[in-house]
Structure formats: C-alpha cells, structure tokens
Design brief:
homodimer; 242 residues; alpha+beta; Glutaredoxin; Glutathione S-transferase Yfyf (Class Pi), Chain A, domain 2; 2 domains; 9 helices; 7% strand; globular
C-alpha cells in the first residue's frame, strides 16, 4: 500500500505523529502538500478534500490519510488504522485499545500545549493574547505538564515487560508520538521540561530510545524533517517558560 | 456483559456520552460512583483506579469503563469499544473508523465548549478568568461553533442513505453524542445556538430524532439523567452568550 498524507506545509504539527509512524515502519508514502500545485500538490490538494462537494466522508481538518479509496481523518484515528498494518501496535484487541487510549491522552497533552500560546482563539495572533497566554502557560507548566508526565511515567513503570516503551515489548506508535511530544515541549518550555523530566527518568529514556531507532534517526537527519518553529503547535516564547 | 461505568457524580460531563450509548442499547450497567462508599462506590471507587499502585493500565481521567477484566479509558475509546457490541456502529471496518473519526471531532467541539469558561486553567475558578472567558466565548460563538456545525451538517447532507444519522441507515453512538453536544450547547449558549441551528436544519433534526428514541426518552425522563448545571462542561453564563 502506498499512502498519501495530507497536511499543511511548513510545520510539523499534528501531521508529524503520522509521519513518524510511516517513517519508522519504512512505509511508502507521499506528503502531498509538498508536491507542486502542478503535480497535484500544495494547499490546493488539501482544500480539495476539505471543501470539495463530492467528498463523501470529509475530514474536519488535516492531517488526513488516503489509503487506497479510504480517506481517514483525526490524528489518533489515522494511527489506529496504521498501527496494526505498520507493526506499531500489539496484535490483541485489548492491547490495541490501550495503545489508542494512550495516543488520545497524548493528543490531549498536545492540544493543551498549543493552547498555552493561543488561549483565546487559534485564529487570533499570539500578540493579541499575550497576557492570558502567560497565565495559561503558568498553569500548564505547574499543573498540567507534571500531571501528564507523571501519568505516562507510571504507565512506563507498570509495563512489566522491561521494554522502554509503554505497551508490551515492542515500540508502538504511541511511543513515537510520546517522544515527539517530549521533544516539542523541550523546544517550547526548555526550563519547565528540564524540571519535569528530572522527575520522570523513564519518560526521558523512552524519548532517547525512540530517537535512537535507525529509521527515525535517518528521518530526523533528512530534509523531510522540518525544524520546530513558531508557526507550529510547540512555540518557544520566553515569557511562557516562566 | 454487565458494564461498570466510572465517572464523577453530580455532573453529566464526558460520562454522559457513554451513558447515552449504554441507555440507548438497553445495556446492563452500574454507574459506580452513584453507589454508596459502603457498597464500593462513591469517588473512592474512582480514585482506586486512578491512583492505585496495582492498576496495570490506569486511565488518565474519568470516564472509564470496566468490561470484565478490561479497563478502558478515554470517552471516544470507550465508545469505539462499545459501538459494535451495542449495535451502535456499522459492521464494516471503514464505517467504524469513520464513526470514530466523527466522535473524535465531537470530543474536540466539547473540549472547546469547556474552554470557553475555563480558558486559563481548569483548576481555577471561572470568576478568576471571566475577562479571557468572554473573549474566548466570542471566538467560539462566532467562529468555532459555526465551523463545527457547518461541518456536521455537510456530513449529514452527504449520508446518502436518507437516514437522520451521520453514518449509513442506523443511528450510531456518534449521533447520540452529537445530540448531547447540541443539547449542551443549547443550554450554555441559547442565543448562539438558535442562530447556528437555523443554518443547520439537518443537525437540529438529528438532535430531535435522537431525543425521540424510546430508550433515550425514558432515560432523559428518569432520575438517572442529571440536569445541566454550572459545575459541568456546558455552563450557562449570560456574559458568554454575547
């Protein structure tokens, strides 16, 4: 199967969680928005599915994945679909549901990280919501981030297989996503991350184990991997790191 | 199978999406927190799973469901599990993924509705974030709510089965959740809801069709159904309805 990934160009965003799974599995895929408009790419390709009258099951927002004739939206849903196919989820139904549950919790963390710089509205500029952003970021650093990190650390602790991942012996897509979230939070909140990770050594080790996987390493060093930047979900504003 | 639902007492919250599915299917379930502490209920029963050292796969937050020995967290994940078992999801894999995708988008809408009254932090009082709440609610009413409603109206339009639901001929758990979200938004934003629903007649008809289902009707008239209230996700603050 050759997959087509549809996501906004120029940022990692939520598309990155899908990319990491595809890259780690060595799957064949095209990042459609990176093709030229002439070759059917660019933002027009996304809009065709978001706005086209003939799309029977339209996604609400990118990322979405085309797999044959199937169009799949919602990041965690895409990974639920890909997990088994790419060997990045357990084989048993209960294990798959648990992996998906972790992924949904990671997506909640990511949404809250985003809202630190956009607490009032995602369509408004950061500059127009700096004061509430500072307050929300404080709550995120002091309460939410430690709560999420503490939770995932407990999950790692209780995976009795002794593996570095959260579910069973093998790395899952949720582990790849967790590593990406940690990396993003490190970019956005370097001081708060240092503090949080000191208390969650298993989480830091998971991050390192994922970044050490050969295909992930190769991907991160490639031109396909975009840098973290301040148009993205994770943003580095000094005022928000306390 | 006799299910056990774990959710905070006193509010509908995210537990309500699970309750509606269980009620519509006539499933046997116990709302554990409503039992007395002496009978193993109350908030202690929740805390046992949230904080207990011996829980192998702990949920991050309520709601969670016990089904036999399986413990399942994250609202949309619980419904993914229950959907097929309760006859509230299509039989084919693509249809199930699509239903789940819609559910995840509904959960995004619900999270945004919550953040209108808590844009700074969910652990702080509304009274301490009234000014940013007013700004966020304005953005929600004017941009986000119409965007979500417009999206779901298109989804209904494109369900060519002619049924009132979003997926195929039969009502799914996503339809039940959609009706609950519409009802909640009507409570919280009566004026904005009137305006939004005028533009989305199919969505209003879906809401009415769900509330007209015999088991849902009976549930809503029962003592098991709590009223909307201002400790809940959907809150009626006059200042936030514009």
């Amino acid at each position: 199967m050759k997959y087509e990934l549809y996501y906004w160009p120029g940022i990692q965003g939520r598309g990155e969680y899908v990319r990491l799974a595809l890259e780690d599995a060595g799957a064949e895929y095209t990042d459609i928005a990176l093709l030229s408009e002439a070759r059917g790419g660019g933002v027009s390709a996304l809009r065709r599915y978001l706005e086209g009258d003939d799309v029977e099951r339209p996604p609400f927002a990118p990322p979405f994945l085309k797999a044959g004739r199937q169009l799949i939206g919602q990041t965690a849903n895409i990974l639920l679909y890909l997990g088994g196919r790419l060997g990045l989820a357990p084989r048993d139904a209960a294990g798959r549901l648990w992996t998906h549950q972790l992924q949904l919790t990671i997506m909640d963390l990511v949404a809250e990280a985003h809202d630190t710089h956009h607490p009032i509205g995602s369509a408004l500029y950061y500059e127009d919501q700096k004061a509430p952003a500072k307050r929300r970021a404080k709550d995120f650093r002091e309460n939410r981030m430690p709560k999420f990190y503490g939770y995932f650390e407990r999950v790692l602790e209780r995976n009795r297989s002794g593996a570095p991942g959260m579910v069973g012996k093998r790395i899952t897509y949720a582990d790849l996503s967790m590593a990406q979230a940690i990396a993003g939070l490190r970019y956005a909140f370097p001081a708060a991350s240092r503090k949080a990770l000191r208390a969650t050594p298993r989480l830091e080790a998971l991050h390192d184990a994922v970044l050490d996987r050969p295909r992930i390493k190769r991907y991160l060093a490639s031109k396909r991997r975009l840098d973290f930047n301040n148009d993205d979900i994770f943003r580095r504003y000094k005022a928000l790191d306390g």
